[in-house]
Amino acid sequence: MNIQETKKQLKNQTGVILLLTLFILSGILIITLGAADLVMAGIRMNRLTGYSSLAFFASESGMEKVLWEARKNTSFSLPGDSQEGLMTGSLDNGSSYAINYASSSPNIFFTSIGSYGGAKRSVESTYEIWTGPSCTPDCDGKECGDDGCEESCGSCGANETCLAYTCVGNNQIYTCSAKPTTGTIWNTVSSYSQTWSGSAWTPADDPTTEYNATADTNSCRYTCATNYTWNSSSCVADTQTYTCSAKPTTGTIWNTVSSYSQTWNGSAWTPADDSTTEYNATADTNSCRYTCATNYTWNSSSCVADTRTYTCTGNPANSSWNTVSSITQTWNGTDWTPAGTANYGGPSTTECYYTCDSGYTYSGGSCIVIPPVNLDLMEYASDANAQAAYVTSQATIIDIGPGAIFRSSNASSNTRTRIDIGNPANDTGILTTFEIYLHADSTDVKMGTFSKNSSSFTNRDFESLGNVTSGSKQTFTGKNCDVKSGDYLGSYFNTGNLAWSASGGQDVYYYSGNAFTGGALNFTFDDGHTSSIYATGISGLQSYSESTIKTTPGTYSLKGVAGLTSGLNKTLTRTIASPLDLTGKNTLTFSIRASRTGSNIKIGIHDTGGTTSEITPNITSADTFQTVTWDISGIATANKDAVDEIIITIVNADTSNIFYIDNMLAP
Prior knowledge:
Blueprint (H helix, E strand, L loop, with lengths): L2 H70 L9 E9 L5 E9 L2 E10 L2 E10 L31 E4 L2 E4 L1 E5 L8 E3 L4 E6 L4 E2 L7 E2 L9 E4 L3 E3 L4 E3 L1 E5 L8 E3 L4 E6 L4 E2 L7 E2 L9 E4 L3 E3 L4 E3 L1 E5 L7 E3 L4 E6 L4 E2 L5 E2 L8 E4 L3 E4 L2 E4 L3 E4 L6 H7 E3 L2 E6 L8 E4 L3 E5 L8 E25 L2 E13 L4 E4 L4 E3 L4 E5 L2 E7 L6 E5 L7 E3 L1 E3 L3 E2 L1 E14 L10 E6 L8 E10 L6 E8 L6 E7 L4 E4 L10 E6 L11 E8 L6 E10 L1
């Protein structure tokens, strides 16, 4: 196939396609026009149906008209046996009717034709004419009403109604003119029934609706409704006072009122009752609200008292707060409590109490200097005075040795230690006084105590007397030599002569050398000799006057002698006739000296209340005065405001002790 043939075929095919397209479009057009004609026919049909309905209604209206005329209109007559267009009419909607009739005794045939918009509908009705027997009217005793022949026996006058063939007055409802709308109610009716009397309506019209508190069912009266009151011109809403329920009593105030005025609005009191009294910080004069009073704070459930820190002031000079200088105060509704007034006393962490400083006492609102209280300055001029003041609980005189008297014989030194077994010690304690009688001045003299075991002697304690003058008894006091019951007295000197008896004595033992060095030594018996030596002392505890070993100021001190073992727990007690008041005193001082170191002596003060307070000072250096400052601030005032005794107690007596106490006072 060549190109020309191909082109020709293509041209032929194109023509066929165009022809087919025209056929398809024509078919679619025909279908569309047919559908449109159907739609238009439907629309016309619907319109005609509506017109037909209006025409039918018009025909019914015409039929009702002609039937009413035929029955009720006595002047209505029919001209002839038939007629078209007997009666015509039109209605407000544009429809109309025409009445045709035809008669055929005893019936009349009415046809009513209604028209609207070209549509016509007709209604037919048959009306029968009465041809029965004639009627005789009956109006005897009748003022009005039917005479029995469809005629009337008479008509009633205006405002009258025929009732049972009698004319009676009509009834009507008289409606009162409006009453005021607010706060009024009808008293008793807003309308009432009236009856025609023949000349007037009774009861009469009441053209003036007015206030009257007396109820009446035949007049136009109103009165005030509930919760309204007549004020001579109108009914005004009543008012009342609404009292709020109680608020919490503590720390609250009303915000703003505890009661408020209510006015009746016709159905309720306004503002409304507030049955719940509650906390609200926003003020309102028409509700039951409270808020916290001054110095109270809301804590989400109640008003709690505020607190504040108050700095105490007003304490006098020479005083300190006891115990705090500031307190927490709480508001009680009228004041801050506790009060911030400075008061003497305490201690307290909640109130402003002060106490006087050390060395001061309270007097008339001031803290004045406390004068020192002298418990005892120890000014006893004699041993008798000292012992009368400080009474010992137990003291026995110890003596040992044959006696330091003149004896005719001489016992030369020969560097011997001699022990005289005459008059052994009668008790245990301390020897404080030694006596010796020499025929020649002696050097390095020693005297002491020995215990005996057969011919063996052991030195217990001794005193070095130094060089001693001869020719008379020499006495040495203030010594401190331990002694036990049954001990013997011995002596030693380097050069010199001791007075003694060569015979008639109670025997002497001697040792060649100084036996005061300690340890058990064997002595040689020397029959019948007696040495001129003697010593005395104390068993237990005793007091003495001391004028040499003392402190200043003053002339004397109190000396105490505590014997070996026998002094343990013994006491020296001074009774104070007029008890001393140490109130406000924080310290008690005294001077003390002892022959031994350590805590061996206890000092106590006794109060009339029965309490004894004590201190046991530690002697740090023997034979040296030291000042003891006793802190008595911790002793309750009740236990030091009437001190009636000073008590000295020995708490350690494993060796003898000589001590001195001076100037006891509370500065």
